[in-house]
Amino acid sequence: MTSWPAYLAELEQRLEIAEVGLLAGVLAVETFAPPEGIGPLPVEYGQWATALLDRTNTLEASLEAESARVATELAQARRRPTGPPSPPRSAFFDQAL
Predict the structure, then answer these.
(1) Is pLDDT of 25 > 80?
(2) Are 1 and 38 in contact (CB under 8 A)?
(3) Residue-level pLDDT at 1
């Protein structure tokens, strides 16, 4: 059975990895569920848990912003022409034919 300090420490470590990964542009987010049977959060760990929740919310907002930025970049990349530019079109039409 995991204790609250061990659970919060593991959560904090995962947050640190995710925060550094986001800064480096390399991130793999894993689902993380609290262990069962741990019981209610003791009062002495309330501030630690609140700080981790705040960091989690900040990370989530950063992930959403980065996702939107990448989506915009991809949409712009799709609109850019690829390959060599097309030759210029003739400005005059030969009517002698």
Answers:
(1) yes
(2) yes
(3) 65
CA distance 10 to 82: 47
pTM of the model: 0.70
For residue 11, the tally of other CB atoms under 10 A from its CB is 18
Give the integer Cα–Cα distance in Å for 32 and 18. Answer: 12
Distance CA 68, CA 73 (A): 9
Count of C-beta atoms within a 10 Å radius of residue 67: 10
Answer yes or no: are the C-beta atoms of 38 and 49 closer than 8 Å. Answer: no
Residue 93 neighbours by CB distance under 10 Å: 7
CB-CB contact of 16 with 55 (8 Å): no
Structure tokens at 44: 């002495």
Place of tokens 């981790």: 52
* Coil/strand/helix, residue 39: coil
